[in-house]
Amino acid sequence: MADFDPTLYVITDAEEADEAVLLTRLEGALAGGATLAQLRDKYRGDGALLRLARRAKTLCASYGVPLIIDDRVDVALAAGADGVHVGPEDLPVAEARRLMGPGKIVGATAKTVAAARAAEGDGADYLGVGAIYPTATKVRTVITEVAVLQDICRAVRIPALAIGGLRADNLGILAGSGAAGVCVVTAVMRADRPAAAAADILRAFQNLPGNRTA
Amino acid sequence: MADFDPTLYVITDAEEADEAVLLTRLEGALAGGATLAQLRDKYRGDGALLRLARRAKTLCASYGVPLIIDDRVDVALAAGADGVHVGPEDLPVAEARRLMGPGKIVGATAKTVAAARAAEGDGADYLGVGAIYPTATKVRTVITEVAVLQDICRAVRIPALAIGGLRADNLGILAGSGAAGVCVVTAVMRADRPAAAAADILRAFQNLPGNRTA
After folding, report:
1. A32 in a domain, yes or no?
2. pLDDT at A2
3. Which residue has the higher pLDDT, A145 or B183?
4. Measured between CB atoms, does A140 come within 8 Å of chain B?
5. Residue A3 domain flag
6. Residue A146 touches partner B, C-beta closer than 8 Å
7. Which of A120, B37, B192, B205 has its CA 20 to 30 A from that of A210?
8. Which chain A residues are within 8 Å of B43, Cβ to Cβ?
9. Looking at the complex, does the CB of residue B122 fall below 8 Å from at least one CB of chain A?
């Protein structure tokens, strides 16, 4: 598996049609301290997605940050990305791992301890756990209690990251949860100043009681 | 490349939500003489698509017919399918070939001689050329003249298949074109009797002046 720092995982806005806007915001997130990036897209054809993924990969590489592709193992492989994230509707974790090979990052979504253990057993390198808060990017979201996040963090050895509506001013709820990081979309990618927003969230997470400091 | 017979290439209805209905119709097409099958889906999540692809692969294998997956190289690999078809909006032919490896079938869409030659050079095993007639499955379709199909058949060594609105009673237009086969969706997959429809189309194509006979 590729080495990665899960502290601040910034995910692109899947509905951003403008490639230049998307890449500019991603660059802001990277400049602000994102440690991991994900390209999420529900909009483009596969050829366009591959071209965007290659540009995002070059951008992330210039910041030394791994790029994960949402859902699409084939696009991740073709773009030379660092990994893939699979959710409950996507290819199974075991298939993603088999196709990606051992050297790449495979992330999974987990809402229960059982799902977290299964994903770890199937080869996931990290877990996204949530939604902690309601989120603008998912229409129907089941809220995951921080207590469940805490249970998951205790049950698995791989890092678990909190996702869902998290911002610098509301992530105090994660104190003591054991979360290895936070995933954000809206709070950074739809911010007026993505770099400042990323830096604020990174600082807030690192300053949580019980977390390491910057 | 896997060996295949391009004579009658039946493609599933991408909007068929009912898995049992889809598989029953596919089985009819196979029983009626389809020589190649493609799973096309614009409806399912990736996990559901993979499960369907595995069932379709088992079904096709029982008839000794290769199964091609539309668009999704990762799903094709995970399902152990025989190949992938990539259109102009999909992953490039060269990427599909690289990810699938040399032993699998890679199909491409071509509407011009230049596109056909490029796809052949990038590793395509066959070409879908059309739409010959307007089709119910594509909203905006540019009609490809049979003269262009003929030029493509002369320009490349790989088989070129005619696609688009073809039925047993209208494929006479292909006589002398050099087409190695016909691709059909609606005429078989939305037929009352898919097996009889497939058999009729196969017979009509084989009986075209200049074609081999059954």
Report:
1. yes
2. 62
3. B183
4. no
5. no
6. no
7. A120
8. none
9. no
Asked whether residue B23 is assigned to any structural domain, the reply reads yes
Cis, peptide link before residue A131, omega less than 30° from 0: yes
Residue B211 falls inside a structural domain: no
| CA pair distance B172, B182, nearest whole angstrom | 11
Inter-chain residue contact A89 with B50, CB threshold 8 Å: no
B214: confidence class by pLDDT, cuts 50, 70, 90: very low
Choose the mutation target among B40, B42, B74 for the interface with A, i.e. most A CBs under 10 Å: B74
Let me know the angle formed at the C-alpha of B72 by A142 and B82, rounded to the nearest 5 degrees.
130
| Stretch B115-124: mean pLDDT | 98
**A3 contacts chain B (CB < 8 A):** no
**CA–CA gap between residue B39 and residue B14 (Å, rounded):** 8
Q: Which residues contact B18 (CB under 8 A, 6 or more apart)?
A: none
For chain A, how many structural domains are there in total? 1
- Domain that residue B77 falls in: 8-206
* Phi and psi angles of residue A38, each rounded to the nearest 5 degrees, phi first: -130, 135
Do residues A69 and A79 lie in contact, with contact meaning Cβ atoms separated by under 8 Å?
Answer: yes
Q: Which of B45, B50, B91 is closest, CB to CB, to A95?
A: B50
Distance from CA of B74 to the nearest CA of A (A): 5
This complex has an ipTM of 0.84
By the CB < 8 Å criterion, does A99 face chain B? yes
Amino acid at B129: V
Q: What is the mean pLDDT of each run of 10 residues along chain A (214 residues)?
A: 88 93 96 97 93 98 97 97 96 97 97 97 97 78 86 98 96 95 96 96 94 56
Instruction: Show Cβ contacts of residue A91 under 8 Å, excluding neighbours closer than 6 positions.
Output: A71, A73, A99, B46, B47, B50, B74, B75, B78
Residue B39 Rama label (left phi>0; alpha psi -120 to 50; beta): beta
Side-chain-facing half-sphere of A110: CA atoms under 13 Å: 32
- If you compute the radius of gyration of chain A from its CA atoms, what whole number of angstroms results? 16
Q: Is residue B120 helix, strand or coil?
A: helix
B18: domain CATH number is 3.20.20.70
